[in-house]
Design brief:
By secondary structure, this protein is mainly alpha-helical. The protein has a three-stranded parallel sheet, sandwiched between helices. Strand 1, helix 4 and strand 2 form a beta-alpha-beta unit. It starts with 6 loop residues before the first helix and ends with a helix.
């Protein structure tokens, strides 16, 4: 067993970062994975250009996406149903590796993993990279 000298106050006084959220331990784990593994990130502006490369509103749906890209939403279906990126396909995290080959049979096709809070995106993307 270890004890943090000075507790959380000592940690922050020494410059340590605290993660504050309902799922803080899992978010911290996701950030650790991203940092250690170098999980790639895609800015929203770049994704928007991939989804509608001609700048047109294609009206959503999986068929509207650029043939080089498929967007998957790694959240539970009920979360995906409330809001998601246009063209995104619901693929809960545990199914990502299983369904990746069917979603992107061409190895040149980019799979973009999305979630609302970043953690499941990181874990999902890194799982695909590792697989």
């Amino acid at each position: 067993m270890s004890v943090l000298d000075g507790g959380l106050a000592g940690w922050t006084a020494a410059g340590g970062e605290l993660f504050r959220d309902v799922n803080a331990p899992s978010k911290a784990f996701g950030e650790l994975v991203a940092t250690r593994a170098g999980t790639p990130l895609l800015p929203a502006k770049d994704l928007a250009a991939m989804i509608a490369p001609d700048g047109a509103d294609h009206g959503g749906g999986a068929g509207a996406a650029d043939a080089r890209c498929v967007v998957v939403d790694a959240r539970r279906f009920d979360e995906y149903a409330v809001m998601s990126i246009p063209t995104a396909i619901s693929v809960p995290g545990a199914e990502l590796v299983l369904r990746a080959a069917a979603l992107a049979p061409d190895p040149a096709r980019t799979i973009v993993v999305n979630c609302a809070g970043r953690t499941r995106s990181i874990i999902g993307a890194q799982s695909l990279i590792n697989a």
